[in-house]
Amino acid sequence: MITCPFCDEENIDGVDECAECGQSLEFLSKPRTNSPIERSLVKDRVYMLSPRKPFTVDAETPVREVLNLLIDQKIGCVVVMQNEEMVGIFTERDALMRLNTDAVKLGERPIVDFMTASPETVDIDASIAFALHKMDIGGYRHIPVLTDGKTTGVVSVRDILRYITEDLLTSTRD
């Protein structure tokens, strides 16, 4: 239950307005953090994850070259560019789900045919919680990071897990 600060009426937690006086209670319904890690996820920004500069490929790059790049660089995704603009992302999951056992046969086709077009992105100044939420809802393990509208990095679930682990370790030492 939440108490209306205008009339002291008890209201169900999460309601938008007081049942008694009709005043807005939306400002009281902000998610509450229950732990130091949750507070850090809400407070800290994506730039604190040190997003890696993305590996980029042209939209017409053959699948074979992109797969070799993923393997050689030990990376999970590449950002697909066309005319200096991001048009998609190609990930390990795309390789498994869209190429699968036909990868050799499809090796000369352009990556644009198999990428995830217009991927979700996150701004460098967004909260880590927001990035994690987008990744969770969309089922993504990688998300491109934008700075002033330009693709400048990529964040992975592994980056966020590393951040949480480091945060846990430092908070238990305090």
Instruction: Record the strand order, biggest sheet.
Output: 3-4-5-6
Q: Which blocks of ≥5 consecutive residues have pLDDT under 50?
A: none
End-to-end distance: 33 Å
Q: How many helices does DSSP assign?
A: 5
The CATH homologous superfamily of the largest domain is called CBS-domain
CATH topology of the largest domain: CBS-domain
The CATH class label of the largest domain is Alpha Beta
Number of separate strands: 9
Helix content: 25-40%
- What is the average of the pLDDT values? 91
By CATH, the architecture of the largest domain is named: Roll
Query: How many domains, in number, for the residues?
Result: 2
- Helix-strand category: alpha/beta
Rg value: 21 Å
Structural features, described:
- The protein is an alpha/beta fold.
- The chain folds into two domains: 29 residues; 128 residues, CBS-domain, CATH 3.10.580.
- It is 32% helix and 21% strand.
- The protein has five helices and nine strands.
- A hairpin with a 2-residue loop joins strand 4 and strand 5.
- Helix 1 packs across helix 5.
Provide a quick synopsis of the model.
With 174 residues, this protein is an alpha/beta fold. It has 5 helices and 9 strands, in the order ββαβαββαββαββα. Helix 1 packs across helix 5 (157-173).
